[in-house]
């Protein structure tokens, strides 16, 4: 099948590479010529395990091509996917400006029937909006060309996106058009050989399903963090509580890891967007608003505990914190809405110096902090420790799970460790002589 994918960001490039891997001819369109040139040279601008090899192989075998020309991209395609960014506006709404641009361009240049697929995360009603834009452009040209707009939301986890695409839990297709549903079913058939995974529903239901899924997962994270904060006050250990409630199959263990809150490109944006949509329809989504508020608070919780610890010692001003982890989670270079940024902002505002390390995202954020003299991004894990008054672990990278604690203890001015991911055992840390603070457990 000939497929055009507009946008080579996180969703677009993963989708393109995986579709190409199954033998389809994929043309990727991006407005940024530097990105197109980089991809054509076999270099990937997104850090995602397994993606670069997939792109290189399918490009070499000519199943995957890159261009800046939308007209070239859709000329021979059967299906065109819209996978451009949909960032949050200041009021929390989803900014559809890039989707609108692509929809208008498709209507302006298409010369044959198309199935247009919204794969970007978009609010309910976007398919109708895209349909009106494409039709408007066709009317301007005096053309009558059949097309259908379909919702096909993505459910990819950063850090495991290739595997998620190759082995999806489900494939949601929102359309009333039987032919469009059949074509999408054929396109996704290689990814569902073990069982039927295609779920066809109304387009607005498909758009809503994406938001509902992410908001449910975000709710579980905020819930366990709320419980963790209560545990710290009543003398319970949230890790024991998690084991107890997770054994109930109705709850399960996934997404109930206490920590520093959720971040990234999806959960924060999607929770805010669904809140905004609800208000547009004169409904107050109290639960979702609480989920968002708990998460905002949780991102700063470890910073607050650190400030409380050092308050009797003259405060944090002039002291240095070694910070391990900047990405919002492991196996990605994505720092959007990362808790590390909230922690750094909170502590540097009080005059504390931050020496931070991240194995992947470090280089990416150096420019971001170039004007902040209190922040230093280092290139080696243990280099962050020299002379620091404490260590805080913010991202659960594997290399942080069993560090050389003797070296950590030696390089810090005092053995003080704030564990934002509950990576370590409190009893073990006590044996090693650390003052140890984690999430959901009162410090001994």
Descriptive terms for the model:
14 strands; elongated; single chain; 444 residues; six-stranded parallel sheet; 42% helix; NAD binding; alpha/beta
Molecular structure report:
It is built from 16 helices and 14 strands. The protein has helices at residues 10-21, 33-40, 51-60, 70-74, 97-109, 126-141, 161-166, 178-188, 203-234, 238-246, 267-280, 286-310, 339-348, 362-365, 405-411, 426-431; strands at 2-6, 25-29, 64-67, 79-82, 114-118, 147-151, 171-174, 198-201, 320-324, 353-357, 375-377, 390-393, 416-419, 435-437. By secondary structure, the chain is an alpha/beta fold. The longest helix is centred in the middle third of the chain and has 32 residues, at 203-234. The mean pLDDT is 95. It is an enzyme of class 1 (oxidoreductase). GO terms for molecular function: NAD binding; UDP-glucose 6-dehydrogenase activity.
């Amino acid at each position: 099948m000939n497929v055009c994918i507009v946008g080579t960001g996180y969703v677009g490039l993963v989708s393109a590479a995986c579709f190409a891997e199954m033998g389809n001819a994929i043309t990727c369109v991006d407005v940024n010529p530097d990105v197109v040139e980089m991809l054509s040279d076999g270099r990937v601008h997104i850090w995602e395990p397994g993606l670069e090899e997939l792109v290189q192989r399918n490009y070499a075998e000519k199943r995957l091509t890159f261009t800046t020309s939308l007209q070239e991209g859709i000329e021979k395609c059967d299906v065109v996917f819209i996978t451009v960014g949909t960032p949050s506006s200041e009021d929390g709404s989803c900014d559809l400006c890039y989707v609108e641009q692509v929809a208008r361009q498709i209507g302006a240049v298409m010369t044959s029937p198309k199935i247009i697929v919204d794969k970007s995360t978009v609010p309910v009603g976007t398919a109708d909006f895209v349909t009106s834009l494409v039709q408007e452009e066709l009317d301007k040209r005096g053309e009558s060309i059949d097309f259908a707009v379909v919702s096909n939301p993505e459910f990819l986890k950063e850090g495991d996106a290739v595997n998620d695409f190759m082995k999806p839990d489900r494939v949601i297709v929102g359309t009333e058009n039987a032919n469009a549903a059949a074509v999408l079913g054929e396109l996704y058939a290689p990814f569902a050989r073990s069982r039927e995974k295609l779920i066809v529903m109304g387009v607005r239901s498909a758009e809503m399903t994406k938001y509902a899924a992410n908001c449910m997962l975000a709710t579980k994270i905020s819930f366990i963090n709320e419980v963790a904060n209560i545990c710290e006050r009543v003398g319970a250990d949230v890790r024991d509580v998690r084991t107890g409630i997770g054994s109930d199959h109705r709850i399960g263990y996934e997404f109930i890891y206490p920590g520093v809150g959720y971040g990234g490109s999806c959960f924060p944006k999607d929770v805010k967007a669904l809140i905004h949509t609800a208000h547009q329809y004169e409904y107050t989504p109290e639960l979702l608003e609480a989920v968002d508020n708990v998460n905002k608070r949780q991102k700063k919780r470890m910073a607050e505990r650190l400030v409380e610890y050092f308050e009797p010692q003259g405060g944090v001003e002039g002291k240095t914190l070694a910070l391990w982890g900047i990405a919002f989670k492991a196996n990605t270079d994505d720092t959007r809405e990362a808790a590390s940024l909230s922690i750094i902002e909170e502590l540097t505002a009080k005059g504390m110096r931050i020496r931070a390390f991240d194995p992947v995202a470090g280089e990416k954020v150096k420019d971001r902090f170039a004007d902040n003299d209190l922040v230093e991004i280092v290139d080696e894990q243990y280099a962050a420790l020299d002379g620091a008054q404490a260590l805080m672990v913010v991202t659960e990278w594997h290399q942080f799970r069993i560090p050389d604690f003797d070296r950590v203890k030696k390089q810090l001015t005092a053995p003080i460790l704030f564990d934002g991911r509950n990576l370590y055992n409190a009893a073990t840390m006590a044996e090693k002589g650390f003052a140890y603070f984690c999430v959901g457990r009162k410090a001994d």
